[in-house]
What we know:
One of its GO terms (molecular function) is nitric-oxide synthase activity. By secondary structure, this protein is of the alpha+beta class. The chain is about 35% helix and about 15% strand. The protein has one domain (about 40-380): Nitric Oxide Synthase, Chain A, domain 1, CATH 3.90.340. The chain has eleven helices and 16 strands. Helix 4 links the parallel strand 1 (about 70) and strand 2. Helix 1 (about 1-15) packs antiparallel against helix 2 and helix 7 crosses helix 8 (about 270-290).
Amino acid sequence: MVAEATEFLESLHAERQLPGLAVRLAEVREEIALTGSYRHTREELVYGARVAWRQSARCVGRVRWAGLRVRDRRHVMTAAGIAGELSAHLAAGDNGGRIQSVITVFAPDRPGVGPRARIWNDQLVRYCGHLRDDGGVVGDPAQVGMVRAARRLGWRPPPVPGRFDLLPWVIETAHESPSVWQVPRELVREVALSHPDHPWFADLMLRWHALPVISNMRLRIGGVDYSCAPFNGHYLGDEIGTRNMGDRERYDQLPVVAAGLGLDTSREDTLWREHAALVLNQAVLHSFREAGVRVSDPHTESELFMKFCAQEERAGRPVHGDWSWLNGSVGWAALHAVHHRYYDTRVPNPNLWQTDRAYDPDGVVEMTLRERHDVARAQED
């Protein structure tokens, strides 16, 4: 940890031209020697969170990294308190439809033990996946396991399951067993999808939520992990149109849209899937903009990403990137980022990392945080 902390603090002081590096390094080394970790100052936390976004290899929207709003909630340690702050995050990120990038950082992980708090949901707003008796799914198939997990904890789905029922939050802490919390519907902005050239599209009754708040990634700053640190940007249109709506393992709407368009789906060489995906993406961009909700198209975002690359190169910083994630699924051959290559394969610090899912496909958790911390305390005794 000392090496990572030193590298981080040297970077912060150099980039911000801050005095007192030697004194701060001495403080941190002493604190690590005594406790196994150290506490970031407010300035260190804000800088670290923003740089983690700047260095996140899979994100195409990094040009906005310096504008990330950091909500320091490290003092909030209870499930009820966390649920309240998640609600506040939804309101702050939504910003009246003018989506702003926000991260809420809760208490850091306990060294050698793990998270002090964990959100089981992969995003704060998701739709339920209700498994039918015949094996089919009403809603989002990606969330069937999460629905099972919530039901094991006592949650009950609506009497008549729908395709867009809000999934509840499951929150646990080192001192509390997992508990279920209803998402405040009044804080969830949704957009009904329609198409400017196809009136029948609105009859499909599709919709999607406005705010993508990722809640299953670990923020790591200078050797300190924050496993509970939900954050959001705004949607890229094809995240909804191609992935959420189009993927066969999700809402699988390509055949439905193709039927509405009268396309020949008997052969793949008609490229009916590509045609239907394009119409879905047009519908998303049109609907979000009509509703006054911030959304990006892949071409504009690709141009902005190249500006980000140029800014980083001028600052003498390498651009880390995962090519397969930085190029949208619609019109990718014409995107500027397609022609950019990323030769530095390191994963720098600070950064954001995927965390392990808290439950298995049947909704069963192997060990809760409370049990994990109890074992650690028993070993210490």
